[in-house]
Structures are given as C-alpha cells and as structure tokens.
Amino acid sequence: MVIDSPANPEVRAEPSAPARRRHPLVRYALRRLGLTAILAVGITVVSFLLTTVVPINAAAANLGDRAASDPAVVAAYEARYGLDRPPVIQYFIYLKNLLHGDLGMSQQTHRPVVEDLGAYAPATLELVMAAVLFVVVVGVALGTWAALRRNRFPDQLARIIAMLGVSTPIFWLGLVASFVFFAKLGWLPSGGRLDSTFIAPPKITGFLTIDSLLAGDLPAFISAASHLVLPSVVLGVYTLGLIIRFTRTSVLEVLGQDYVRAAEAKGLSGTETTFRYILRAAAGPIITVTGVAFGTLLAGTVLIETVFNWPGLGQYAYHAATAGDLSAIMGVSLFVSLSYILINLVVDLLYMALDPRVRLT
Q1: Which of 24, 170, 261, 320 could bridge 328 with an S-S bond, Cβ 3.0-4.6 Å?
Q2: Which residue from 212, 30, 227, 264 is spatially nearest to 130, judged by alpha carbons?
C-alpha cells in the first residue's frame, strides 16, 4: 500500500472504499419510525395523565361496588396495578403493563380490554376501510372530472356534491338513508354485519367479507358486503366532499405544468395523460388528506355504529363512556391514537415514493 508522505506530494494513499449510503426512502423511514416511537410514548403519557385527572375510583370502577367495599380486595387491586405508589412509579408500571399487553379489565364485559379490542376492532376497521375505498374512488373520479371540465356542468355538479357532503349531519343522513333504502325500497339491510339466516364464517381476519371468501361462502360474502354499503357510504359522505375539493384543486394546479402540455403535444390520449402525469403529480395532497380522513373516520364511528347497530369500537366506546369504564375508554383511545400515527407514517412514505419531486436531506 502506498503511503501518503508530505515529502513526496505526488505519492498519495489509495482512497478507502466509499461508505455505503442508505436509500433516501430508507433514511426517511428510519427517521419517521423514530418520531413515531416518540409520539407513541407521548400518547402513553397523556393517557396516564387523563387516568389520574378523571375523578373516577379505579378500584370501584373495575371491581364493582361489592368487591370495592372489601378493603383487602381493594388493597390487592391497588398493589397489582401500583396504585399505592407515587405517580411517577405508577406511570412506569402502567407503561410496563402496556408493553405486556395489559390494558386492565373492562367493567362492562368483565374481560381484558385487549380481548375486547381484538373482538370489536375488526368490525370498525372493515367499516372504515370500506368508507375510505368509497371516498377515494368516487372523490378522485369526481374531482378529476370537475377539474378537466372546469366551469362546466360536471364542475358545478361536483361542487354541489362536495358542499352537500361537508354540510349534511351524518346521523341525520344515516336515519334518512336507512328509511329510504331499507324501509321503503328494501334494497339494502339497515343494521348488523350479517343476515340472521347466515352463520358467521370462522374468524381469521375478523373482516366478515374476507373471512367469508376464505371460507368459500359466497352468499355470506354478498350478505356481509351488502350490510357494509349504507354505513360506509354515510360515514364517508363528509370526507367525500373534502376529497372532491382537494382533488379538483390539485389537478387544476397540475394542468398548467409544462410536462402536461408536452404530453398532450406528443399526442398522448387524454386517459393516458391523466393517469400517467396528472394524477401522479396531484397524488401528494390527495394521499395526505386521505390519511387524515382515515384517522378521522376511525375516531368518528360512534354515531354511525349506533344508527346502524354496527358492533364495533364505536359502540364499545359509547357503552364504556356511559358506564364510566375507564380502562375500556383508555384502551380505545390508545388504539385510535396509535392507528392514527401509523396511518400518517404510511402516508408520508407513500408521498415520497409516488412524488419524485420530494427531496430529503
């Protein structure tokens, strides 16, 4: 190996092999994962502080009045969850229990909250994903159509639909939709996840539509899908208006770009130009608002699940709130908060992957 020497400036050392640099998407994902971990810890802090501020006797709420009247039982419960320790120690015990999947016992079901979340969360996630699919397909189509036909009838129609979507109360719309499409027309079922004549398929994912397909039960799939239509559409109406507006604005901004005019000048068809250039360039804001909407829909299913008798987290949280079931309330809050963080992580990664203009340092 040649040694670099000040006495011989012409003799230089061989350069070392360049250090391997991670792909920008990998570096960004690692940073976002770190931020996600910090946010998750912050959520646990807020959750713990709420449990200490709410004026509810945790022992009485979880043990019941009869057990709470026994000092020995109360002392054992407080020692089990560290309620007899200083607040700082209580938080670390609370965090340790969370890491072990212990969210406490639900007062209303007398089961671990983790089991309740596993039982009710799939129904809510299936409903929310169906609503997101509806608003993305219909909203992007109407928003793009309105932008390509600016100030014409399609544009005016899309504006009317968007205005009605963001201004109509969903609980009222749910009642009207159930009355019209179930009571009057008989086209769609109004409540539950499956007709009473069907037996639920074996639980694999918790999504009745997927589980029925995995079980090869097509009639059960059709029934489960039909039960999804009304609640998912009503749940997504408000978000539909937002998606239409954001899509229209984003597409209008892209239409004036040079690369779009160049694509049209090359003789590409309108459909090819729209999908290859316009929608891809406009996808960033659409993906962002869709991710935010997913979290909003997940947290706002209480009214829809009540109106349509949907056995999901919304109803579970409502009954927990009316019964003062603190463990269940905090379990639902943690689930929704962590889901929202993960969704935003996925949205950020998709934003970078789909938009080549994004540059990360």
Answers
A1: 320
A2: 227
